[in-house]
Amino acid sequence: MSDLKTIETGPKSADVADGTMKNIDISEHDLELELALANYVPGSDAEKRLVRKMDLIMMPALWFMYILAYIDRQNIGNAKVAGMDEDLNLSDDQYAMLLSIFFIGYLICEVPSNMILTRSRPSFYLPGIMIIWGALCAVMSVVHNYQGMLALRFFLGAIEAGFFPGVLYLMTCWYKKAEIGKRFSIFFTASVCSGAMSGLLAGAITGNMEGVRGMRGWRWLYLIEGCCTIAMAICLKFILLDFPESSKRLSMEERQFAVIRMIHDRNTSVARQAIRLTHWQSFKAAVADPRTYLFIILFVMDLGSCTISYFIPTIVKSMGYTSVHAQYMTIPIWMVGAVFLVVLSYTADRTGDRRWHITGCLCLSFVCTLVCITVNNPKVLYAMLCFYIAGLYTALPLILNWTSEVISLPAEKRAVVVALVNSIGTLILE
Description:
Blueprint: H1 21-38, H2 45-81, H3 84-87, H4 92-117, H5 122-139, H6 146-160, H7 164-174, H8 177-208, H9 217-236, H10 252-265, H11 270-273, H12 279-288, H13 290-303, H14 312-317, H15 323-351, H16 355-372, H17 378-406, H18 411-429
Helix pairs in contact: 2-8, 2-9, 4-6, 4-18, 5-6, 5-9, 7-18, 8-9, 8-15, 8-17, 12-18, 13-17, 13-18, 15-17, 16-17
């Protein structure tokens, strides 16, 4: 196979289309890719080896990154149960504002961040923003007033905004339509498992570190979890893959194979795959596509109910548990959701269906809501809470996966659409 050092995803906007040597090189390379595409055989042993390698390198790294991202976002609920609201003299309205301000920062920065990612190296960009949000989380341990916590929550949202849509875009650059569903759902189990892990860590930290060196347990919670995030980000810088045409962790042959199989999967040509849009062009293409707004509506229907995750420790505590026991009792709720997510994402990929899987999940959550407003038995309420979370959190990745499948090219447009669906959904929610 040819030397992939000359591979480009397409002519840059500054290229001169008048027959220069640079354009001749790109044209010759396109002909070579077309020949390789004609000889491509899906499901070969070589392709299976490549996919296994991609899985082993990328999936565990992204999964642990999302675990920490979600823990650092959600630990405010655990901190509240551990006494943060009393120490900072927070009213109910102020606590609600601390939750909302995160999403305001998230909204502002989500689309620009995904635009930057398309022109940068994921192995630098994603760990870089992870180090910053980990530092912000750690600094929350020394905050002594509402205003300071409000500012940190805003910047935490602004920095974390680049992670989730960035990962979805990165995965759609590497995996075929028949591969992406279960892998993205496995990645998304991190958000569900993080709820269980957050409760486990919060119970251990706030229960054992209360008063150590004169610090409250909730302050240790922020400090320890923030430092863990920074340490993990430094390690992942040396693990993550970049884009298929430029990732240095693969051989030249593997990079070319990765490019060819994605061109074949999208049933397109090398020339169309090579189209590159500027930031403004990709934004205009995304907002002009009516399908974007249909996916926004669907996403809002699901996302609107997911903020309950911030109140789960408080809800469980209201069932009669102590503060520490309530932290641990959140674990089964998230584990049920994780099982649902893995099983239904597998069946969605096997059947090629997204629509009815999403419909079923949202209907399940709706039924659980009806039961909760008519029953007062704590055991029944706890069980319904488990299935309510399972339905909501299983539908979310299926919706975003469906979005990336329907609007797949150009790649820059896909990146903006995914970010818009996520960010505008958050705006309407707030």
